[in-house]
Design goal:
By secondary structure, the protein is α/β, with parallel strands linked by helices. It has 3 helices and 10 strands. An 8-stranded mixed beta sheet has the order 1-10-9-3-6-7-8-2. A two-stranded antiparallel sheet has the order 4-5.
């Protein structure tokens, strides 16, 4: 098992299937909060369900209202189990903070090493991501 050290931004611990993209996510316009799926037709993960999975993407883009979309995902029980970013932003962190979704930031090169990984364990309290 390989462990990556990052920054834990929203505490929590979980393990699950990992979905990776190096494209940013626009939560307001690119996610369906009722289905827990990427809905942006221009995104490489279009149609990908992330409910209950570890979602790794570099950062979010778009309106700050995206934080409320993350909250809607949580209320609809369609949220990811955890989020891993390369450079976390206020949209992702604030949405996850009000929703109780763990967030780890991997700014020092560890993010790309998640490409092709199928499962990960996230301990945002320690800021670690372990590749299972």
């Amino acid at each position: 098992m390989k462990t990556l050290q990052g920054r834990g931004l929203v505490a929590g611990k979980t393990q699950g299937d990992l979905i990776f993209t190096n494209q940013p996510i626009a939560f307001l316009a690119g996610v369906d909060p009722d289905k827990g799926v990427i809905s942006d037709p221009k995104h490489e993960l279009v149609g990908q369900v992330f409910t209950g999975k570890v979602l790794a993407f570099p950062y979010s883009v778009g309106s700050s209202v995206g934080a409320y979309v993350i909250y809607s995902l949580s209320k609809n029980r369609t949220a990811p189990a955890a989020i891993i970013n390369m450079n976390s932003d206020i949209i992702t962190v604030s949405g996850c903070a009000i929703s109780g979704i763990p967030v780890v930031d991997l700014p020092d090169g560890g993010f790309e090493s998640l490409r092709g990984i199928k499962n990960a364990s996230v301990d945002a309290s320690k800021g670690t991501v372990s590749i299972v």
